[in-house]
Amino acid sequence: MAMEAADPDANAPGDLEWSTDGRSLRAIGRWTIDQARLVEARLAGLRTEGGGALTVDLSRIAALDTAGAWLLFRALAQLRQSGAEIELAGVRNRHKPLLDIVAQIHAEKPEGFHPRSTGFLGLLEQLGGGLIRALIHGRDLLNFYGLVTVVFARTVANPARLRPKALVTQIQETGLNALPIVGLLSFLIGVVLAYLMSDQLTRFGAEVYTVNLLGLSITREIGVLLTAIMIAGRSGSAFTAQIGTMKVTEEIDAMGTIGLDPIEVLVIPRVLALMITLPILTIWSDFAGVLGGAAMTMVALDLSPAQFANQLKEAVGIDDVLVGLVKAPVHAYIIAMVGCYEGLRVQRSAESVGRQTTLSVVESIFLVIVATAAFAVLFSILGV
Amino acid sequence: MAQRPAVSVEGLRTQFGAQVIHDGLELTLRQGEVLGVVGGSGTGKSVLLREIIGLQRPTTGRITLLGEDVWSLNRRQRQALATRTGVLFQDGALFSSLTVAENIQVAMREHLSLKPALMDDLAALKIAMVGLPPEAGAKLPSELSGGMRKRAGLARALALDPEILFLDEPTAGLDPIGAAAFDELIGSLKRSLDLTVFMVTHDLDSLAAVCDRIAALVDKQVRVATMAEHMKDDHPWLKEYFHGPRARAVKAPARADA
Asked: Fewest CB within 10 angstroms: A169, A216, B65, B162, which?
């Protein structure tokens, strides 16, 4: 393409030049993608008066690529529409193959693709699609719960099928290894709550009730909810990522061919492990939260540890701890099931693992909070 | 007029720790030719490709691509060079969050300021050129089959009409019919667009069908020759490769040459 360097218009953007008699056009300059904007602008006003035969001379094109050829054929089509009969002349040998292929595609007029719809209709479409997907999703999740329950019943009936090693590994991974983070965060939340409560209650001279409020809120609600949310982020996501990765590498399919049931091998140990560890983690979290509260009340209210313990004993009974604790296995079940389910839904791509993992965390936290609300309603009806 | 080579590699040495991959490798790719690069696993075919397109720095040596010294460019020069080269990665490497048409338009959006309507036209043109149906433009890469993804990747590589095209195992993972169609596509695009092609491949049929010359990576260096010449070479690996049980397909044309 550098060979035409001697030509004066070798560096100018491509254009079609009329001859003086208006019966022929000459293509000059560079018809390339980097000039395409200018070429398009120059060709925009091109039309012919009357019509009739028109010769287009292509011999002086300095450079040509697919975008240039496309623009050329588009301009020629425009001229044809205004009545001209076009004849190409002076086509160079080395431009011919390119012109041929672009001419052919241009003649077939590839249909533009429909961009994803936008605006109000698009919004409506998305809304409807989203609703239907959510319903299908809910149905599938329910199906999965049923499937796991059946497999679980089979496993319980035949305990030899339980995999103790997988179970212990999962208990260590989801329970023991989570102790530091759950303990630390619960302690800090205890500190924050005690600070807020003592600050407000001091105004009424009821500062000692900080202990009651703190003890009740942590044991009944916050300890268990906080633990569940942390475990959903920590272990639920791990379940999805582990199982999802196995899905991508076809390990799950391989299990099927060997005659292993992925639900039995992967899902049951995880669900059981989490149902064992989450209550224990909840007790641990209650303990750490109350400890954090005690530390803060000591500093803010000058309460001695003995006073704190006495007040706590009066305020919080064993049934309050149980009310919190009874929710833990339910949360564990939700988190483990959603984590495993989303893992099994991973398609065969790395991108899908990330998407399902995010979804798994969002969904399990959502369901845990819904369950907490349901428990609150239930307890208020039962008067616990 | 003596044409400068499209790619020239001089005194290339690549070393990972104690492992030497290339040692004193010399390679010239002429303009307008299709060069197939072959070699056993671990001989550094893909590494060589990555070094030429500027993704991986060689230990020593000089690599010139389209007249520019690849490893002494500043950021802007490197970008300019990138617009003149097209690369097709093994599985297409399409941006998974964009549709095929948007994938093709990425480079246009980044480097040029074209009107959206023209970009749509050009994307449709490239899609037709690589033999995809028009409706593929609106699809996401995950909705395409492996062969279609490769075609879409090729369309993206061709978006800015590059002078040189790099292909990494273009027919790997395709069935024989799909692979033959892809070979044919590369051949015809090469002729229409006046491309220079650098192709890493294992596929003997591809080598026979589209390559002008073949560069074989043996003994940490490269031997460039035509298929017929390679077949007379008595290096043990080349002998095994070109005369092994899977080389039946290429024997016929080679005999005709010889």
From this structure: A169
Q: For residue B63, list its beta bridge partners.
A: B9
- Backbone φ and ψ for A53, nearest 5 degrees, come out as -70, 145
Tokens of B3: 């044409």
Q: How far is CA A261 from CA A51, A248, A257, A279, in A?
A: 76, 17, 10, 28
User: Would you say residue A127 lies in a domain?
Assistant: no
What is the rounded distance in angstroms from the CA atom of residue B236 to the CA atom of residue B154?
35
- Identify from A4, A30, A33 which residue to disrupt to test chain B contact, counting B C-beta atoms within 10 A and taking the largest count: A33
* Contact status, residue A344 vs residue A247, Cβ threshold 8 Å: yes
In a domain, A42, yes or no: yes
- Decide: A360 and A343 in contact? Cβ < 8 Å: yes
Strands (E), B98-211: 164-168, 196-200
Structural contact between residues A331 and A229, judged by C-beta atoms closer than 8 angstroms: no
pLDDT digits (tens, 9 = 90+) for A306-335: 989 999 999 998 989 999 999 999 999 999
pLDDT of B94-115, one tens digit each?
888 889 999 999 888 888 888 8
Interface ipTM: 0.76
Q: Does B112 touch chain A (CB under 8 A)?
A: yes
Decide if A40 touches B, using CB distance below 8 A.
Answer: yes
Q: Is A23 a member of any domain?
A: yes
A196 and A82 inside one domain: no
Residue A42, domain extent: 2-108
Q: Which of A 78-107 lie inside 8 A of B, CB atoms?
A: 94, 97-98, 100-102, 105-106
Helix (H) or strand (E) holding A24: strand A24-31
Place of tokens 């313990």: A309
